[in-house]
Every structure is written in C-alpha cells, then in structure tokens.
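Hi U.,

Before I forget, here's the chain from the pilot set. I'm dumping it here mostly so it's searchable later in email.
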Amino acid sequence: MRYMSDREAHFATRRAIPIDATEIVRLRALMFEDMGRDPGLLDERWRRRNVDHFTARLAQPDVFAGYVIDKPDGGVAAVAIGWLNQHLIGTANQTGRVGYVANMCTEPAFRRRGFGRITLTALLDWMRSTDTRTVNLHASTDGEALYRSLGFTDPSETALTLRLN
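Structure:
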C-alpha cells in the first residue's frame, strides 16, 4: 500500500454512493470534452441516462465501485470508476475475475494535486480485496504516465475489437 504525501493528506477519498451519480456524470462529461468528443452529444438526455446508469451500478457494491474526492464547498473534485467481470478461470488467473478501470477524471481546478493517483489507488485496493488479479483500462495520452507508474503495462497478447451494429 502506498502512503499519501502531506499534500495529498488534506483530501481523503471515499467510496462513491448512488447519490453521487449526478456529480460523477458531470465529471464524465468533462472527461469526454477533454478527449475531444462533440459536446453536443453530451445533451440532457445523455446525462439523464448516465445518472440512471451510475445510480443503479453504484448500488451493486460487490461488482462496481467508484472512489471520489469531495470539493471543500460541495460536489466532487475527482473520480475513478471500476467494475469486475467474471471470465473463465485460466492458468494465469485462478479466480477468473478481471477488473476494468474507466471514467478517471479530475475537475480542472483540482488537477496536478495527485487526485487521480489517490482515487485510482483506492479503486485498485478494492479490486485487490476481491482477489482480482488482472485489471485492464484504455489510457488517454494524459493518463498513461499515471497508469504506468502504478504498474500497468502493454498487454502481452494482441487485443482486437469488433463493434456489432
């Protein structure tokens, strides 16, 4: 387990709960805008559907988790979301559990304070507590250095994707 620096200790992470869904979706929209996605796609309908989705998923604490850091004046400054999938048991993964990290975002005013590392470390600690041995993610250019510093590596096998219409 990594210990927090004095700078990080002023902000504590906590497990997200369903009532946090609206703030998580607000940060999710910021994340997509930072990635160059069309802000027009992030309309009120999209936000409502995402709030409903996160509210339901955060109520499944055995397989879905979010860790957040609260802003001093209310709201959420940073979030890391992840979930567990059950795969077949293999030779390298005796539990078959595979974690996935997504929705890493820190509000611009709170960036460069280690919030991404704090929330992601808490999420990975939760995954370890479930005996998950493999964790995957898709890294943005901005996040890649953080992920590699925590031990993420390039996959040893070629990953392919098929989008079914």
